[in-house]
UniProtKB/TrEMBL annotation, chain A:
It comes from Paenibacillus mellifer. Coiled coil: none annotated. This is Sugar ABC transporter permease. Belongs to the binding-protein-dependent transport system permease family. GO terms for biological process: transmembrane transport. SUPFAM superfamilies: MetI-like.
Automatic annotation (TrEMBL), chain B:
GO terms for cellular component: plasma membrane. It comes from Paenibacillus mellifer. It is found in: Cell membrane. Its main location: membrane. It holds the Pfam family BPD_transp_1. It comes from the Bacteria. SUPFAM superfamilies: MetI-like. Residues 72-262 form the ABC transmembrane type-1 domain. Keywords: Cell membrane, Membrane, Transmembrane, Transmembrane helix, Transport. This is Carbohydrate ABC transporter permease. CDD domains: TM_PBP2. The keyword Transcription does not apply.
Length: 280, 277
């Protein structure tokens, strides 16, 4: 069987492979190579060693974006997951209208980042107007604005995964705990949370990588203002490439650093989910 | 008994308040889309009144300014074209590399999985340049780009599903005299339907909302909806708020319709994609 399929490589695998090679594999390796060179287009690259990386790490915009991104990611991951989990608890009590509520809470997740950014720009500026400031008056407003936006977008998504996890817990376990005299809080702590641990891991990493890689929302909400104080990593890389000329090499070096950080998160996630699977 | 009923009522009340809170940003945008552009930024929470109400003026102006219907058509064409190509071709590829077990196909599988974790910014510049050089910087060429950059997740999801199909079904078909092409289209593809829906939904959500990739590749000549909206923000950071509100409503509308039509598939697909991704 394997032999007869193998002859059809050109039909089955080749088209995808060609597009994948040209649009992913080649640009990826070219990107790594170019991060060690100076260039303005891809054909005039001159070897520059590690100087792009040195420039990237001594660039205040980059360091600020890195710190902003880390702070934002920590706050967003915690708030999104706490609210999503609480919402999932409320929606698994079997009250009227559960499906309708689920539909409403999940909807913002489908709206694109650019649209989300401008929706919240209107709302937040409307509130801040009463205090005679705007979103871009201080980096703090932009920070918390992004946190609110991220919560609105991701809570419904994470909630759906938590609901699936909670509904997988068998009724007998909960009833056994009740008969043993567990309080409602005790059941939550000793039964529900340990049993939905796999969902928690998934949600933590999903919200983590979504927050860390944020771009569209950042661009639409504040575009980094004031000055570049609210620019996250992805936006800073974009600005480095397409802002002033002559910084393409540094932009590519920043992009490689960004990739390494994202890959690190993914590797930790892989290990976390693997070890959980063994335990269960 | 009375106590549990009370608790149910309280839960319902809390959820109702939260649901209204969740919907309010969209409703506020909708409300402001009918107000004159100078009455939006400062007082977004006021209902339109006789002085501020402008009927559909924002809509007609916004549509003219952004070329919204062209952008809608462009988004539609790119999304439908790319998703159709991705679903068909990556299903074939996944089937091939799962069924043909060589060192080469194994390596391919790992490269596809690896590509899933690479953020767009890593290849943003080089991919755009490559696309220019190969003359793929047009609405048809961008489909090839989406196939290339989106192949990882789709091949991964299809491969996981193909592994669970018992070989006997396909073998029986081959013994009956079918060649692998017939066997794939008659037997395998129908079995893949549930995961194909998941792959389609995930890719629709990505491509429809994608801003940066189409902006860089075709943005100077063609606008998708996110590009049209970002375009409203003028060169000096000034925004026609009236047109912006109307365009936000028009951008959200197709998503809400799509969501209400295929809600079940979307939620299932997103969960399946999340658990495996």
């Amino acid at each position: 069987m394997q032999k007869s399929i193998k002859r059809y490589f050109a039909l089955f695998a080749f088209p995808t492979l060609l597009a994948f090679t040209v649009m992913f594999i080649i640009p990826f390796f070219m990107g790594i190579y170019l991060s060690f060179t100076e260039f303005t287009t891809v054909t005039d690259a001159k070897w520059a060693g590690l100087s792009n990386y040195a420039k990237a790490f001594s660039n205040p915009d980059f360091l600020n974006a890195l710190w902003f991104t880390v702070r934002f990611t920590v706050v967003a991951v915690i708030t999104v997951n706490v609210f999503a989990f609480l919402l999932a608890l409320l929606l698994t009590r079997g009250v009227r209208g559960t499906n309708l509520f689920r539909t409403v809470f999940f909807m913002p997740n489908l709206i694109g980042g650019i649209v989300l950014g401008y929706i919240w720009q209107l709302i937040l500026n409307g509130i801040l107007y009463k205090f005679e400031v705007t979103l871009t008056s201080s980096a703090n407003y932009g920070f918390w604005g992004l946190v609110v936006l991220m919560n609105w977008q991701l809570i419904g998504y994470m909630m759906i995964i938590y609901i699936a996890g909670i509904q997988n817990i068998s009724r007998e376990v909960v009833e056994a705990a009740q008969i043993d005299g567990c309080t409602r809080y005790g059941i939550l702590r000793n039964v529900t949370i340990p049993l939905v641990m796999p969902s928690i891991t998934i949600c933590l990493f999903l919200s983590l990588s979504n927050s860390f890689k944020l771009f569209d929302q950042n661009l639409a909400l504040t575009a980094g203002a004031p000055s570049k104080q609210t620019a996250m990593l992805a936006l800073d890389i974009y600005n480095t490439f397409y802002g002033n000329g002559g910084w393409e090499g540094v932009g590519q070096a920043k992009a490689v650093v960004f990739f390494v950080l994202v890959a690190l998160i993914a590797l930790i996630q892989l290990r976390a989910t693997r070890s959980k699977e063994v335990e269960n | 008994m009375q106590k549990t009923r009370n608790r149910g009522t309280i839960t319902f009340g809390v959820l109702l308040v939260l649901a209204i809170l969740f919907l309010s940003p969209i409703l506020i945008v909708l409300m402001n889309s009918f107000k004159g552009k100078f009455f939006i930024s400062d007082t977004p929470f006021k209902f339109p009144d006789a002085q501020t109400f402008v009927h559909f003026k924002n809509y007609t102006e916004g549509v003219a300014k952004t070329g919204f219907f062209n952008a809608f058509g462009m988004s539609m064409f790119i999304t439908v074209g790319s998703v159709a190509v991705i679903v068909l071709l990556t299903a074939m590829t996944a089937w091939y590399i799962t069924r043909v077990k060589t060192r080469f196909t194994k390596l391919l599988y790992y490269i596809f999985v690896f590509s899933m974790i690479v953020p767009f910014q890593m290849v943003m510049f080089t991919m755009t340049k490559t696309a220019n050089m190969l003359h793929l910087d047009n609405p048809l060429g961008i489909i090839v780009i989406y196939l290339g950059f989106g192949a990882g997740l789709s091949v991964f999801l299809f491969s996981g599903f193909v592994k669970s199909i018992p070989l006997e079904i396909e073998e029986a078909d081959l013994i009956d005299g079918c060649n692998p092409v017939q066997s794939f289209f008659h037997i395998v593809l129908p079995i893949l339907k549930p995961i194909a829906i998941t792959v389609a939904i995930l890719n629709v959500m990505w491509i429809w909302n994608d801003y940066l990739l189409p902006m860089l590749v075709i943005g100077t000549e063609y606008r998708t909806i996110p590009i049209a909206i970002q375009y409203l923000k003028g060169g000096y950071g000034s925004i026609d708020m009236g047109a912006m509100m109307a365009m936000l409503v028009l951008a959200i509308l197709p998503i809400v319709v799509f969501y209400l039509l295929c809600q079940k598939y979307i939620i299932e697909g997103v969960v399946a994609g999340a658990v495996k991704g």
